[in-house]
Amino acid sequence: MQTEQVKPNEVTLVSVLSACAHLGALEQGKWVHGYLKSNKVELSVFLGTSLIDMYAKCGEVELALEVFNGMGVRNLLAWTTMIKGLAMHGGDIEALSLFSDVEKAGIVPDDITFIGVLCACTHASLVDQGRQFFDLMTGCRFHRNVELAEDVVKHLIQLEPENGGVYVLLANVYAASGRQEEARKVRN
Questions:
Q1: Long-range contacts: 172-175, Cβ < 8 Å, 24+?
Q2: What is the pTM of this model?
Q3: Are 57 and 24 within 8 A, CB to CB?
Q4: Which residues fall within 8 angstroms of residue 154, CB to CB, at 6 or more apart?
Q5: Alpha-carbon span 49 to 59, nearest angstrom
Q6: Which of 62, 109, 118, 154 is the most exposed place for a label (fewest CB within 10 A)?
């Protein structure tokens, strides 16, 4: 593209950053970031989130935070990507603090956001906080949102299949929503 003097659009740049993230190609990702700066490309929420993801997956959490903090507009995906990046690299307390900021901003977290938060709690051995977040996530006491809990549990089982606490929490969600038979099956 460059030899033909064709300027990449946002979709192309996001795709290149995604490839860099998946390959762990930090230097190429930094080059793209430099390209964005030198060409004064406006950092949209999509480009910013792609940069955060790339830096986090390449182990450069400080650079991810720098991009995140410099973003003028953040959507749920940007917040979630930063939370997961911090949780993945030992920034458990920072991830939980960011989650509090999500709530303060009035953004409704989704199951992927909660997975990041629960991973942060697991890594920091914050069992009680993890249970509180799990209760918050399910909303079963108020909304009977068992499907969301099931989705999160499936992801958590993939991440930590040996963690029996996940099954206990799911059983509690079933019980709280009146699905006693499912609760019994999960406990057994």
A1: 173/138, 173/140, 173/146, 173/149, 174/146
A2: 0.74
A3: yes
A4: none
A5: 15
A6: 62
